[in-house]
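Hey forum,

I'm writing up a methods section and want to include a predicted complex as supplementary material. The small molecule is fe (ii) ion. I've pasted the protein sequence and the SMILES. Can someone with a working setup run it? I'll credit the forum in the acknowledgements.
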Amino acid sequence: MPLIQWDETMSLDMDELDEQHRELIDLINEAFDAIQRNDERCMAPLIDKMRDYAVVHFEAEEAILRSCGYPESEVHAGQHRVFEEKVEEFRRNLAAQANLSQVFIFLSRWLTSHIMHEDRKFLPWLPETDDEGA
Ligand SMILES: [Fe+2]
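Reply by user p_vandermeer:
Happy to help. Structure tokens for the complex are below, copy them as they are.
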């Protein structure tokens, strides 16, 4: 069973960011799957892949926030840095950690909550969606 399941309640009604969030969730699920299988060969590369994609996604999201003048864009970017640091720390101590699944579940919940609450705050600053008034 996937750790996170994307559903419409997570949608920001912006295709670019929704697609990136879906992709990130897929990568989280893949990495979690390897962790649960205790697949040591796949675990680290999949966590790296997830982390790399998170960095790319955060950069894209932050660029959008700055370009649309979201006043909290620096605070929001700071939240992304916290996630990146937590993943980095998790990744560094991979071999030494007793309960990988538990830590990874924590990281995933943090991200889901970020998408559903923090990302929602910048919605009023986003440009009109494609399907409105088209
Ligand atoms: Fe965000």
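Some notes you might quote in the supplement: The chain has one domain: 16-125. The chain has four helices and no strands.
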